[in-house]
Amino acid sequence: MIDAPDAFLPAFLRAWHARDGSAIGALFTPDGDFVNVTGLWWHGPDKIAAPHQYALDSFFAETTLRPGRTEIKDLGDTAIVRARLHLTGQTAPDGTPAQPRQTIMTFVLIRTDAGWLATSAQNTDVVPGQETHLARENGLHAVDYRR
User: Fold this and answer.
1) CA dihedral 112, 79, 38, 96 (to 10 degrees)
2) For position 29, which CATH number holds?
3) C-alpha angle 60-63-17 in degrees, rounded to nearest 5
4) 11 and 5 in contact (C-beta within 8 Å)?
5) How does strand 115-125 pair with strand 28-35?
6) Which of 1, 51, 63, 81 is deepest in the core (most CB within 10 A)?
7) What is the reported pTM?
8) How confident is the model at residue 147 (pLDDT cuts 50, 70, 90)?
9) 102 pLDDT exceeds 80?
10) Pseudo-torsion of CA 19, 114, 1, 123, nearest 10°?
11) Which residues contact residue 115 at a Cβ distance below 8 angstroms, ignoring those fewer than 6 apart?
12) What angle is formed at CA 89 by the lines to CA 87 and CA 93, rounded to 5 degrees?
């Protein structure tokens, strides 16, 4: 049981490093949702657990998540946990090591009889020095209009 909002991120990181998608799903309310870095949107603990397990068994099998700046807004029976995470060890589709990257994870937590659980989460890739994405025929590209 997660007894305080500041215990949520360490629980998420433990589940990640244990390569346990079910433990990640168990951190969510029955109606909880998770939006990943590419906009995939999963609803419910099982639907959150399954793609995490797939990733943790494959391209994230050797990853490490290290937390950076973390902010917690305690709003009573609700809290927002936002953390910069540094990811290393990802494998590229061709099997080569990927470069490290950073994301910002945002969790909206609610106090339940089972402790603090996430009702919503969003993971956003950090693209240093860029302002937005620009859609082109060959996909999205991070751009900076200030240049």
Assistant:
1) -90
2) 3.10.450.50
3) 100
4) no
5) parallel
6) 81
7) 0.95
8) confident
9) yes
10) 40
11) 1, 2, 3
12) 110
The one-letter code for the residue type at 85 is L
Rounded CA-CA distance 137/35 in Å is: 24
Q: What is the separation of C-alpha 41 from the centre of its chain, rounded to a whole number of angstroms? A: 12
Task: Name the token pair of 36.
Answer: 């990943």
Distance CA 98, CA 125 (A): 14
Query: Which range of residues forms the domain containing residue 45?
Result: 5-143
Residue 86's closest CA among 97, 98, 71, 102?
102
Return d(Cα 15, Cα 55) in angstroms, integer: 13
| pLDDT, tens digit (0-9, with 9 covering 90-100), for 3-22 | 999 999 999 999 999 999 99
Q: Who contacts 138 (Cβ-Cβ below 8 Å, separation ≥6)?
A: none
Distance CA 62, CA 84 (A): 19
Number of domains composing the chain: 1
∠ CA 132-84-111 to the nearest 5 degrees?
115
